[in-house]
Amino acid sequence: MEHYYSEKQTSNLRITEIEPNLRGNLIKLKTGSGVFSIGKIDKGTKLLIETCIIEQDWKILDLGCGYGPIGISLAKAFPQSEVLMTDINERAVRLSRDNIELNSIKNASAKKSNLYEKIEGKFNTIITNPPQFAGRDICYEMIEKAKDHLEKDGLLQLVARHNKGGKQLEKKMNEVFGNVMDIAKKSGYRVYVSRLL
């Protein structure tokens, strides 16, 4: 069974282009079959993009980037920042690279990585809409290993449906970081933030 979090997609690639307004900019995005949220930005991702905490010259990791709406919209809104977008799904990484080019983004790149496997260096923030359908263990690993990839005072920012697993992820963030707060809520989604002290 193939999922958007599978490494290789065998379904025929059907491209749908969308032009959402994200973080104050119109963004062109190619979305495709075999990748999360085809043809529209899902509500959780949009809430995360619009409300996440970013400062201008930050290094940002978009973990599990899909076709790249988070990384690309933040790279465009914060041109002094440096954005790394990663996903296990080869098709998602290819689409992300196309979308970086499509939007003439100079401060973002996309690479294939299974969670943190190929990630070097540290970031001021790690931003993710975790693949809850992939199971709790994967989501927990995203939270636990974030600590090794954050600068001091760095932020892990995550969106989830509060009553559909989000509560458990919030609890896990508090366990791992010793702090968590929600900074936004809408349509059942919440954005949770933990700081590396």
Question: What are the SSEs and their pairings?
Answer:
Blueprint: E1 15-18, E2 21-22, E3 25-26, E4 29-32, H1 43-51, E5 59-63, H2 69-77, E6 82-87, H3 90-102, E7 108-112, E8 123-128, H4 136-144, E9 150-161, H5 162-177, E10 181-186, E11 189-195
Strand content: 25-35%
Query: What name goes with the CATH superfamily?
Result: Vaccinia Virus protein VP39
- How many beta-strand elements? 11
What is the domain tally?
Answer: 1
The CATH architecture classification is: 3-Layer(aba) Sandwich
Rounded radius of gyration (Å): 15 Å
Under CATH, the topology is which?
Rossmann fold
| Count of runs of 4 or more consecutive helical residues | 5
**Structural class from helices and strands?**
alpha/beta
In percent, how helical is the residue content?
25-40%
Report, as a whole number of angstroms, the end-to-end distance.
Answer: 41 Å
CATH class: Alpha Beta
Report on the biggest sheet. Answer: 7 strands, mixed
Report the uncertain regions.
1-7
Helix and strand succession?
EEEEHEHEHEEHEHEE
| Strand arrangement across the biggest beta sheet | 7-6-5-8-9-11-10
Shape: globular
* Whole-number mean pLDDT: 90
Provide a concise account of the structure shown.
With 197 residues, the protein is α/β, with parallel strands linked by helices. It has one domain: Rossmann fold (3-Layer(aba) Sandwich), CATH 3.40.50.150.
